[in-house]
Amino acid sequence: MSLPAARPTERGFCSENSSGSIEGPATKISPRSTSEESAAISSILYQMKAGSAMYHVPMDTKWDIRFLELADCIATWSKDPSRGVGCVIVSTENRICSTGFNGLPSGVEDLPERLTRPAKYDLICHAELNAIVQCARNGVSPVDSTLYSTFFPCIQCTLAIIQAGVSRVVAWETAPGDEHWTQSIEKSRSMLHEAGIEFVMLPKPEPAA
Predict the structure, then answer these.
(1) What is the C-alpha radius of gyration for the chain, rounded to an integer number of angstroms?
(2) 13/72 Cα distance (integer angstroms)
(3) For residue 135, is pLDDT > 90?
């Protein structure tokens, strides 16, 4: 399934609002979003619904795949030249609470030297943290929610996930990275397990023949 790309109006964020919104199969899109952004997400949600029989997997896993595919699209909004990461936080009723991608803070200019290593490590806000912050800004509780991320959260994002009350984390399986990243993921797994938060890593499915 080919997913369209779009750009958000506010750095790192797009969100859900119950007033005057565009309906999708699992969410509502805020009127604060640009028409381009709303059209892109609505198109993705339509494709998810229309392609629900594309993969031979259980229904619960299908929803996980749908939201991870949405996170994949949101990752394309990042201006990070080396890696775009997307995140979606979803309620127990499969409604989107917030989304985020990795990027510089709102109001900070996207200068090339700020988006490259090693400078970006101290400046870029990760997708998971952006999504959690957006919940707070919109007055939406992430307690008992599921957080979907295109990459397994780093240890700092994991601490925020635990403190926010998220009950489940789902990410795509990724190839092992460098030693520092591998250690960060292992710390994240350990902390999530100790905090009683379920974590799932899914392989990206191949379309059925």
Answers:
(1) 16
(2) 14
(3) yes
What is the value of pTM for the model shown?
Answer: 0.70
Domains of the chain: 13-202 (3.40.140.10)
Distance between CA 86 and CA 20 in Å, rounded? Answer: 25
Q: Which residues are catalytic?
A: 128
Q: Which two tokens stand for residue 20?
A: 């005057």
Over the stretch 44-79, which tens digit does the pLDDT of each residue have?
A: 444 444 343 333 344 578 899 999 999 999 999 988
Percent helix / strand / coil, the chain, rounded to 5: 35, 15, 45
- Contact in structure between 1 and 54 (CB atoms under 8 Å): yes
- SS3 label, residue 22: strand
Q: How many CA atoms lie within 13 A of 14 on its CB side?
A: 31
Report the distance separating Cα 84 and Cα 104, nearest Å. Answer: 12
